[in-house]
Structure formats: C-alpha cells, structure tokens
Amino acid sequence: MVVFENESIFLFDDLPEELYYFSYGPNMNNSRMKARCSTARMVTVARLADYRIAFFGHSRIWDGAQATVIREPGHEVWGAVYELGHTDLERLDAWQDVRMDGTGTYFHYPVRVKGEDGLIYTALMYEKDNLGKPEQPSTPYLDFIIQGAMEKHLPAGYIMDLKGIKSRSPSFPVPKPRIFNPESLLAWDCSLCSD
C-alpha cells in the first residue's frame, strides 16, 4: 500500500503497483461505479484538504454544469477511494473523456487524500480541463452526486453542504442516453489503419 505522512500534491512518472482513484462526484454512486469498473474495490471514505467542489461547463447528458474541484484553502472535499486495476483506469478515462493530447473534458491529477482509516492515500482524481465561469448543475445531476455521497456515508455536514448547492431544472429528461459507449474506443486496433 502506498502511504504518505502529509497531504501535499505530488507527481509520479510510473503508475504504482496499487492504483487508487479518489471519486468526489457522480462516480461515487454505487450503480455507476459498478457498471464502469466492476473490479474496482472501495477502500475508504477520504478527505481532500484545501479544495472545494464546483461546477463548470455543460453536460449534454445531464443538461447542466459538471462537477470538478478547485483549490480553496480551508475547505475540503469528501469522497471515496477505490483501488483500480490498470484496465479500470482506461475505462474511466474513456467515460470521463480524458485524451492524451489534453483536449478532453477532464484530465486525471494526482493528489493525496486522508482516509477515515487515518492513512494518507496517493490517488488519481479527475478535474475539468477548461473551467470558464461557474454554472449551475441540473438538479438530477446534483441529486445523483448526493445519492452517491449518502451511499458512501460521507459526513452529514458535507452532505448538507452538497444539498445547499444551487441547481436548476433540466430542459429535457435526463440523463440523456449516450449515442455510443466511450469504451468502444478502447477496442479499436489502429494497426490496420492506413496513412
């Protein structure tokens, strides 16, 4: 297990043997995580210090802003730490629209979070790439995050803070089904592609 004594941000060149993911948004929801990463194992509830949850951009699936975290000293974001297999990371990257050239909606970023078990975990976390101005999430999207927070038994005060976030009604039924499954991109074999 990778454990550290402080919570500062770090960078690494190679993926560690045990790969941890810190989920603070919709992926906390049990049904979503099981569908996307059936082999992922929840390790602990954890706290990310000096950040807060915020909403930016626009999701065509949820008709509202998407969750990310931004640095804010004195605040904290609660979520779940999962242990992933390396194929789980590829699957999450596909769902989060992470692209190697940096043009995707999200990128994964290494952080240290403190678990309820008292240990500090080195974990990957998804952040939005382009923020722009803050926007409101749709109410169903925010409710989905709150449902995940309740399933994970995050602190009651934090759940109340989530419930206090302003949201708006979507203009169409959500979540809108995706036209294609992003994981299908992982199966492409470019060895047959021509120049």
Topology diagram in text:
Layout (H helix, E strand, L loop, with lengths): L18 E5 L6 H7 L4 E19 L4 E21 L1 H10 L10 E10 L4 E9 L10 H13 L4 H8 L32
Antiparallel strand pairs: 1-3, 2-3, 2-4, 4-5
Write a structural description.
By secondary structure, the chain is an alpha+beta fold. The protein has helices at 30-36, 86-95, 139-151, 156-163; strands at 19-23, 41-59, 64-84, 106-115, 120-128. It has a 5-stranded antiparallel β-sheet. The relative contact order is 0.22. Mean pLDDT is 87; it is low at 1-13 and 188-195.
Low-pLDDT ranges? 1-13, 188-195
Mean pLDDT: 87
Instruction: Write down how many β-strands occur, each being a DSSP E stretch of 2 or more residues.
Output: 5
Q: Could you give the order of the helices and strands? A: EHEEHEEHH
| Strand percentage | 25-35%
Number of helices: 4
What's the oligomerization state? Answer: single chain
> Distance between the terminal alpha carbons, to the nearest Å?
44 Å
